[in-house]
């Protein structure tokens, strides 16, 4: 019997499906691809996914019990394989089709993420939003030396720091304005289109004072040094 313990989580099930998607020939030992592998290599692959699944938790199982879990997953999804011969049960083709469906699902999620990212970039490539209260708006020379900005997942942009040297002057952002506590040199080297963990601050006399909070932010592709 399988050892008693926590049930397999949705994260573990998805990781197991992803693993079999990459190594679908492991689903059935009699497949041609599987026979081309040595027994040691097959054991090594299962040990690899077993270690990853156990590390993810909460369920902790042996490699053999994870193989049984895979068979159970296939059985739960047999309704999706009604075109297969009655009584055939799970086989490499069935597992491949299940994994293919999971792969398509992951592609759809990735496309949605890319679409959301493109929408965010359109907002970042424009000027920084007006973060002042009331109707007060400060123009710091957009065509000459604009303040650098970063955008969050809500498509809101905030200034990086609260002051910078510009044409012999040192313009500052109004007190109370939200900002990111990030040096200009660090902003210069940030890779566009990648999410970063950014500390939040508030402008006070030209200084971005750390508020001891963080949020995820991204540098737009069109942002210049």
From TrEMBL:
GO CC entries: extracellular region
Domain Myb/SANT-like DNA-binding: start-end pairs: 5-83
Location(s), subcellular: Secreted
One Pfam family it belongs to: Myb_DNA-bind_5
GO molecular function, one term: C-C chemokine binding
Signal peptide: none
InterPro entries given in the database record: EVA_Class_A (IPR045797), Myb_DNA-bind_5 (IPR028002)
Keywords from the UniProt entry: Disulfide bond, Glycoprotein, Secreted, Signal
Reported function: Salivary chemokine-binding protein which binds to host chemokines.
Protein name (Swiss-Prot/TrEMBL): Evasin
The organism of origin for this protein: Amblyomma americanum
């Amino acid at each position: 019997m399988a050892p008693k313990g926590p049930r397999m989580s949705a994260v573990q099930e998805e990781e197991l499906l992803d693993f079999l998607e990459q190594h679908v020939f492991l689903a059935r030992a009699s497949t041609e691809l599987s026979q081309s592998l040595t027994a040691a290599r097959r054991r090594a692959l299962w040990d690899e996914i077993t270690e990853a699944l156990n590390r993810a938790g909460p369920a902790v199982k042996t490699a053999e019990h994870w193989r049984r879990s895979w068979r159970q997953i296939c059985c739960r999804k047999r309704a999706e394989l009604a075109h297969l011969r009655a009584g055939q049960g799970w086989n490499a083709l069935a597992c491949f089709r299940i994994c293919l469906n999971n792969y398509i699902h992951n592609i759809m999620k990735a496309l949605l993420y890319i679409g959301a990212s493109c929408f965010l970039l359109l907002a970042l490539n424009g000027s920084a939003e007006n973060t002042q209260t009331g109707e007060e708006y400060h123009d710091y020379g957009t065509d000459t030396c604009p303040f650098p900005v970063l955008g969050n997942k809500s498509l809101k942009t905030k200034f990086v720091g609260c002051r910078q040297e510009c044409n012999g002057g040192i313009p500052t952002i109004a007190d109370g304005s939200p900002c990111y506590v990030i040096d200009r040199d660090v902003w210069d080297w940030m890779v566009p289109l990648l999410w970063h963990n950014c500390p939040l601050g508030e402008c006070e006399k030209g200084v971005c004072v750390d508020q001891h909070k963080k949020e995820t932010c991204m540098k737009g592709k069109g942002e210049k040094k």
